[in-house]
Design brief:
The complex is a heterodimer of chains A (about 675) and B (about 500).
Chain A (H helix, E strand, L loop, with lengths): L3 H4 L3 H14 L6 H25 L10 E9 L2 E8 L2 H24 L6 H19 L4 H19 L6 H32 L14 H9 L8 H16 L8 H4 L5 H10 L4 H8 L1 H5 L10 H21 L5 H21 L3 H28 L17 H15 L6 H14 L6 H25 L17 H17 L9 H6 L8 H4 L2 H26 L11 H5 L1 H8 L4 H59 L3 H13 L4 H21 L1
Helix pairs in contact in A: 2-3, 2-5, 3-4, 3-5, 4-5, 4-11, 4-16, 4-20, 5-6, 6-7, 7-9, 9-12, 9-14, 11-15, 11-16, 14-15, 14-19, 15-16, 15-18, 15-19, 16-17, 16-18, 16-20, 17-19, 17-20, 18-19, 19-23, 26-27
Chain B lengths: L4 H18 L8 H22 L7 E9 L4 E7 L1 H20 L7 H20 L3 H22 L4 H30 L4 H9 L2 H10 L3 H22 L9 H7 L2 H33 L1 H20 L4 H22 L6 H36 L11 H4 L1 H14 L7 H15 L1 H26 L15 H19 L2 H17 L3
Antiparallel strand pairs in B: 1-2
Helix pairs in contact in B: 1-2, 1-4, 2-3, 2-4, 3-4, 3-11, 3-14, 3-20, 4-5, 4-11, 5-6, 5-11, 6-8, 6-9, 6-10, 7-11, 8-9, 9-11, 10-11, 10-13, 11-13, 11-14, 12-13, 12-18, 13-14, 13-17, 13-18, 14-16, 14-17, 14-19, 14-20, 16-18, 16-19, 17-18
The chains are: A mainly alpha (about 675), B mainly alpha (about 500).
Chain lengths: ~675, ~500
């Protein structure tokens, strides 16, 4: 059953990509066509994606989940690409296409007034196609190619309003910072290819993620005594760090908020930034490969866990001191991606992916809510100049509130609670250290706090934006409906992720799920749920006490947290000064090196050329002078004929290349004659 | 014409040059259409050959006549996949460059005649299999290039063209001397013959026999002979630190000529490495392998760093060009020490892909610069521009595509070659691959910086009248853009022609 979809999987990315190609050639006025093409092609892809999802059902398909083909042959060696339909791909396809479709529809409203509407749908379709291609890759090379293409889409869409210098700079920064990680990934892939001779993940036992290859990788030792498997895993993880905004390469993601809100929702919250997590999940057998053979304890996964845990807490703390509505959410995304990484690192593969999917829905919802609020407030993004919006925008408020509760992890009815709980549970069971668990728990409190702060400042209290009050309006239905659908999905998704019936997790691990109501009441599960609920509640209460109970009346009133902890707050407000430190160290020294090299170019290498030119001229003159003043007088007394000769010779050395050429030619001719007949 | 296909490949532009040169002054306006048609015919001819070409080992369309028997000089032509790919590239870039050339030049007859003469020289270089003939064409291409820079170049053309001439001439002289030594010992100028002899280890033996040296001395002498050839080729590519002539020459040459310099003439050096240096002097190069690898890495990273510091659009792209050719050199050198056959094939296959694709991309980029100059009245400092995307979105899109192809975005043609090269390099010298990756990053830095400074931000008032690509210009760019996309998605289109050559080269490169 459903095996046809495996053969036709390539249609899923192709449909949006073809639409993007057509839209690239569509003139600016073809707005209606852009909307139809973009949404139509993505609808096709969505339907097929769900078919793929059901096709990936455990037990649905037969053997051989992958389809491989030769992309190119160099010399006699074929280089293969391919796609795979396993539960991971199925779930990602369904999630990406569904969220993308909702956001495409939302964009109809949000971008309605933009003069480059057509171009927007072109880029967005290009992104959707590339992202769908990424998640179905069976070849890591294919994955890398799509990985770069989504990076390009991200670059184009962050810089969509290219006339704004900030947007243009942010686009460049995003591309370059992620590229730093990508180069690690590229090296990792090449290393892997060199070691195993293939980049296909699964290939009937010959793939690089299959037992035979992994056994070899674990045995061999690389630089510094680590195994080859660890070295490759860490290099690949570099790519994930860049794409998923993990410390220390997270600096691009908040700046990426310069792009239109639907872009932030789709690319920089729900899908592309999660690609790093997906990558780790995709190569999980490699990451997990270790000499000891125990799952979840390899050196590479330990690195993943620590990076994730640190990111989760740090970004949550920074989010608590931001004022830009979208930047708060961006740091929140960074933090949540940290949770996912942590989950994968501590061995909770399925729960990490569950959080990825849950996060995609609720963070997309939050961004759409934020976009709707920003849209209603005439593109005001500073939460200090918002306030009281619940009165004018009830639907947006309700949707945003659902997203907020899911993100904060309000118990029982929101998927964020179950997925985050699963992560904490997995972290608790990590034998290496309990610190990630504690960091994760602290992050829960911070998350609840900053979300409460945001809600209170945007929707609570009185409007602080001044004159525009009368014009605040709820968004049109085309923007409201996707929000409502996402809100419903966020609630429904929690059904399939509870410990009592962890359907999604079992699905991702390729098993049939069974109802195990007893698991819900296990001692450990219960106390972790209780603890996280408690910490979350504390965060919410703290947020409410500071921002909700006595709402601020003026936009320029100081932040209550700043009054309490000025030093800490301003450090967080300045985002721990990562950008400044990078600017002062990496960027400046690199620019200095470039200048130094340029100096070397100008003064030495091109100077050398100048001197060679002068030298040639000088040689010409010298020979002329010596002819005139040394050679000629010496012969003067002798022979008139020889003197004539000398004068003739001197004429050849005028420093004129034409004559040199003639001499060279004549010389060669003479030589040829001599060699032929001499 | 049957049996003389390759002769006609060279003759088409040569005859065109003769016709243009003989035009009376009153018919000056005809120079451009005649020039374009001759270049078009050459390209069509090359394409026709490509259709008949089969991806098999050995040379095809071979012509072999005795020329100067006493000197071992033969009129020996033939192409393998490499030569054919280069001939196709020459045909394509030449036509594009002629189309981009300004109308209303001074002395158009001379300009178009020199251009076609240059094309004839290049076609000859890529098809000749006898050193004498090859060298003649090699030098023949140098002279028109020199005059094109000298007569139609920018304000610094004098010193720059002299430098260009001196550097390349010095290299050529070294190469000529080296081959004379070889000729004395072996009695042949035949390149395939010399290659075969060298792989059998016969060249050293012949040197000993002829000069009466012990074998160790002969081997050392052969090393020095190889160094002479190396010098001639490395100047042309160029390999740092032999590149002093390049940035100035690229910047001061008329932009259409720059397209040829970077698109095709830089490939002459690489072609020489693949056709002559490797097959005859592989062991000699292996003797200096570590140093060569270091120089190639320095070329890759240093040129990228230098490009970052440039403000002049043409100088920036000139360094970018050095950077991209640096990957080719890296691949060629690395393959010398690749133990596995498949890694060598990756490196050398990647090199050939990169040669072709860089030719397309660099020529297109410089072609776009020519269109920029036409609109800006010759201004091309990055700081002179900004926000042009608003006035010229299509222009920006085309430029963007060329830039992303150049920085190796997958899906466009820059990527497959670079990926294969890095695969081969990593197998031989992981440290070199790791260090060169820095070049990939810096390339992105300066190319995106270029896009940002030229096209993004607010549009300054002085450029509010900036016109977008005209339909004619757009049509001119479409073939390049199409090639970027097709060869990015389906590189097999090119690999299918060159694979037999790659297999043969990889066998020659075996340590």
């Amino acid at each position: 059953m459903m095996s046809w979809i495996r053969e036709w999987l390539w249609l899923i990315p192709l449909a949006p990509l073809a639409a993007a190609g057509l839209l690239a050639l569509t003139p600016r006025a073809g707005r209606r066509r852009a909307a139809w093409l973009g949404i139509g092609s993505l609808s096709v892809a969505t339907v097929l994606s769900w078919a793929a999802f059901f096709g990936a059902w455990p037990g649905a398909g037969g053997a051989g989940r992958e389809v491989n083909f030769t992309w190119l042959t160099f010399g006699r060696t074929p280089l293969e690409l391919g796609w795979v339909l396993d539960p991971l791909t199925g779930a990602m396809l369904a999630m990406v296409s569904t969220v993308a479709l909702l956001i495409f529809v939302y964009s109809l409203g949000d971008m309605r007034a933009d003069p480059n509407f057509t171009r927007f749908f072109c880029f967005l379709s290009f992104f959707a196609g590339s992202m769908l291609g990424l998640v179905m890759a069976n070849s890591l090379l294919w994955l890398f190619m799509c990985w770069e293409l989504v990076g390009l889409a991200s670059y184009l869409l962050i810089g969509f309003w290219f006339e704004k210098p900030a947007a243009a700079a942010a686009a460049k920064k995003a591309f370059l910072v992620t590229r730093i990680g990508d180069l690690g990934l590229l090296l990792g892939l090449i290393y892997l290819y060199t070691e195993t001779g293939t980049l296909l993940c699964y290939d009937e036992g010959r793939g690089c993620l299959e037992a035979a290859a992994l056994a070899g990788l674990v045995e061999r030792v690389s630089v510094g005594g680590i195994t080859v498997a660890t070295a490759i895993s860490l290099l690949i993880f570099c790519g994930a760090i860049g794409k998923s905004g993990q410390v220390p390469l997270h600096v691009w993601l908040p700046d990426a908020m310069e792009g239109p809100t639907p872009v932030s929702a789709l690319i920089h919250a729900a899908t592309m930034v999660a690609a790093g997590v997906f990558l780790v999940a995709r190569v999980y057998p490699l990451m997990d490969a270790d000499v000891a053979g125990e799952p979840g304890l390899s050196a590479a996964l330990q690195g993943v866990a620590w990076v994730g845990a640190v990111t989760a807490v740090m970004a949550a703390a920074i989010a608590a001191a931001q004022f830009d509505l979208k930047r708060i959410l961006a740091y929140s995304t960074v933090s949540q991606l940290g949770y996912m990484m942590m989950a994968l690192g501590v061995g909770g593969y399925a729960v990490g992916m569950f959080h990825l999917i849950a996060h995609a829905f609720f963070k997309a919802l939050l961004f759409l809510g934020a976009g709707s609020a920003i849209h209603g407030c005439h593109h005001e993004r500073d939460i200090r100049r918002m306030g009281g919006l619940r009165r004018w925008m009830p639907v947006t408020f309700a949707a945003h509130a659902v997203g907020m509760m899911a993100l904060a992890g309000v118990p029982l009815f929101f998927c964020g609670f179950w997925s985050k709980d699963g992560i904490l549970h997995a972290a608790w069971g990590w034998p290496v250290s309990r610190l990630p668990f504690l960091l994760g728990l602290a992050g829960v409190g911070l998350t609840a706090f900053y979300m409460m702060r945001q809600m209170a400042m945007v929707y609570g209290g009185e409007y602080r934006g001044g004159q525009l009050k009368k014009e605040i309006h709820e968004s049109p239905a085309v923007m409201r409906v996707p929000m409502v659908i996402l809100a419903v999905a966020v609630v429904l998704l929690s059904v399939v992720g509870t410990p009592a019936w962890p359907w999604l997790e079992e699905f991702l691990e390729g098993r049939e799920a069974a109802v195990r109501a007893g698991d819900l009441f296990e001692h450990e599960t219960l106390w972790i749920m209780g603890a996280s609920a408690l910490v979350m509640g504390a965060g919410l209460v703290a947020g409410w006490r500071l921002y909700g109970r006595r709402p601020q009346r003026r936009a320029d009133a100081p932040d209550p947290l700043r009054m309490a902890q000025p030093a800490v707050f301003s450090l967080l407000e300045q985002r721990l000064r990562f950008d400044e430190v990078y600017e002062a160290t990496v960027v400046r020294s690199a620019a200095w090196a470039a200048e130094a090299w340029d100096w070397l170019e100008r003064e030495v290498w091109q100077g050398l050329m100048q001197w060679a030119g002068y030298g040639a001229l000088a040689a010409g003159w010298l020979s002329r002078l010596s002819d005139e003043y040394l050679v000629n007088p010496a012969f003067d007394g002798g022979c008139e004929g020889v003197r004539g000769c000398g004068r003739g010779m001197s004429g050849w050395h005028g420093g004129r290349l034409r004559i040199y050429l003639r001499v060279v030619a004549a010389g060669m001719a003479a030589m040829a004659v001599w060699l032929t007949w001499g | 014409m049957a049996g003389h296909e390759l002769t006609w490949l060279t003759m088409a532009p040569l005859l065109g040059a003769a016709v243009v040169a003989c035009l009376p002054r009153s018919q000056e306006a005809r120079a451009r259409p005649i020039g374009l048609s001759a270049a078009g015919i050459a390209l069509a001819w090359a394409l026709g050959l490509a259709l008949r070409f089969q991806d098999l080992p050995g040379y095809q369309f071979v012509e072999r006549l005795s020329w100067i028997p006493y000197l071992g000089v033969e009129y020996h032509l033939g192409v393998d996949g490499l030569g054919l790919a280069m001939a196709l590239l020459t045909g394509f870039v030449m036509l594009l460059a002629l189309m981009v050339s300004r109308t209303g030049l001074e002395r158009p007859r001379l300009y178009y005649a020199l251009f076609l003469l240059l094309e004839a020289g290049l076609m000859g270089t890529f098809t000749a299999l006898n050193f004498f003939h090859w060298f003649l064409c090699w030098e023949l291409s140098l002279i028109p290039a020199f005059f094109l820079i000298r007569l139609w170049g920018g304000p610094m053309r004098g010193s720059v063209s002299t430098g260009f001439f001196l550097y390349t001439l010095a290299g050529s002289v070294a190469m000529l001397l080296a081959f004379q030594v070889l000729f004395l010992a072996t009695g042949t100028f035949d390149l395939p013959g010399l290659a075969r002899l060298s792989q059998e280890g016969g060249v050293t033996a012949r040197l000993s026999e002829y000069f009466g040296w012990p074998e160790g001395v002969s081997r050392r002498v052969l090393g020095w002979v190889g160094a002479g050839v190396f010098l001639g080729l490395a100047v042309k590519v160029p390999l740092m630190p032999l590149h002093g002539w390049l940035p100035g020459a690229y910047a001061e040459a008329p932009t259409a000529v720059t397209m040829v310099l970077t698109g095709v003439m830089s490939k002459m050096g690489l072609y020489g490495f693949l056709r002559i240096m490797g097959p005859i002097f592989a062991d000699a190069m292996r003797g200096a392998w570590g140093m060569l690898m270091v120089l190639a890495v320095v070329t890759v990273v240093g040129s990228a760093a230098a490009a970052w510091a440039q403000k002049d659009l043409k100088r920036l792209l000139a360094y970018s060009s050095i950077n991209h050719l640096g990957y080719c050199l890296l691949g060629i050198f690395a393959a010398l020490q690749c133990g596995s056959e498949s890694a060598r094939q990756a490196a050398l296959g990647g090199v050939i892909l990169q040669m072709f694709n860089h030719g397309i991309n660099a020529a297109t980029l410089f072609g776009l610069v020519a269109l920029v100059e036409r609109r800006s009245g010759g201004l091309r400092d990055l700081d002179d521009f900004g926000g042009l995307r608003k006035a010229a979105p299509v222009f920006c899109g085309v430029m963007g595509m060329a830039v992303f192809a150049s920085l190796g975005l997958p899906g466009l043609n820059g990527f497959p070659g670079e990926f294969l090269i890095f695969t081969g390099v990593f197998a031989a010298a992981p440290w070199a691959a790791v260090a060169s990756v820095l070049g990939l990053l810096l390339t992105a830095v300066f190319l995106l910086g270029l896009m940002q400074r030229m096209f993004h931000g607010p549009l300054p008032g002085r450029w509010s009248g900036w016109t977008d690509l005209s339909p004619r210009e757009w049509a001119m760019m479409i073939p390049s853009l199409g090639l970027m996309l097709v060869l990015g998605v389906y590189p097999q289109a090119l690999l299918g022609i060159v694979n037999a050559a790659v297999v043969e080269l990889a066998a020659v490169w075996a340590p």
